[in-house]
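U., I forgot to send this yesterday:
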Amino acid sequence: MDIKIDSLIPFDSLKTNIEHVFTVVDKNGKVVLLKDNKPVYIVLKYDENNSTDAEFVMQEMPNYTLHEAMRIVLSEAENKTMHASELADEIYRRRLYLKKDGSKAEYTQIRARCGHYPDMFEALPGNRIKLKDSV
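Result:
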């Protein structure tokens, strides 16, 4: 089943912005509600002409920690270096890591994670992050 990225919505949106949830269902035909960074519910728009939407298999999303996701993306980057905000965007684009509410990790979290894993990452001037070579 194809799911558009804007169809992944935090579960709490049902309480805080239910209008948005159903607007996305109307637009895309379905919404995947995320809780603790995992899909928990799918809301489908009923279509009496197409019952195949109910017969799908959801692919399991990767369950990486933020520093694992950083390592994956940086290992493929030129010079194993990226700006923290670009790194955050790429991790989110690939859905390698989402916060518990389903949102993107901020560049400040990326930068802070460098300090927690100094053997793995180096924080360079200009908010650039470098993956250190494995020893």
